Amino acid sequence: MKRMLRELLRKLAGFPLSAKRKVKWIALTTALLLAGWGIGMLLFFPASSLENHLENEVATQLRGNGSLDLEDLSLRLPLRLAARAATLRVKRLPATEIKATDLEISPLWLSLLGGNPGLAYDFKLFGGNTEGFLRRNGEIHLKLENLQLALPLREKSPLGIAGTIERGELSAQWPPRANSASRLNLTINDMRLTGLEAIGSTSGELKLGSLVLQGAGMGNAFKIDRLESRDGQLTATGNGNLLLTNPIEHSRINLAVTLKPTPELDPQLLELLGMFVKKDGAGNFPLHISGTLSRPQAQ
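Now predict its structure.
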């Protein structure tokens, strides 16, 4: 395109046109060239080969523990990749299949001028909105809004967790580095523990109300400053620490939680809770959670 513009300028120099008309001709021709380039990109964009490349790259990064399937990958101007749907399958996660729709990815244009380019993304997930950006150095920014969750606690477990992520924000770098800061804010409404029929409860679910989780960290150390659920049949407060490692499921957790039953709690569940956790003098149930994220242990 640069060569064509230079040739155009050379030819225009020989015409008896005013400077103003030359500028108009150059602007018009440049616009036509850009339009032709854009149409050519849309018509001959190698969607199939790029789709295969992205799916193979994700499989490589997951080291055989998952896969990505893209549907109807296409190019939209100005330089945005779009897909009708993307399904991520990851082993050892409670939700072994995560499907996003209306996916769009575009460059962070100013970042292309430096040594740490990035991509912005947005898509629909669990009926809500997800957006953010990531950079080459592993910097991640994520925003969640109105996601409808209904996930098993563990793969093939009859017990599950349900609720609505009203809002969530995550800023981090992965894998974490010594000087990388991280921050998490999460609010989940109408949170429920489901599938309790499997452990003999007649109520079927435990209403946990609204959950607020806040934390921040530096490097591999992450501190949970606030863990609080309220307006449920069982309320909870807690705090603790995470020692982050890659892969993340091997990260170690050290969390202290105090469970406080309310009069609305099913007596069967209260009795069952007392079989696993010793009640303190105030009638609450102090709980210590340790181990790894993939294999937590409660004491």
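Residues 19-44 form the longest helix (26 residues).
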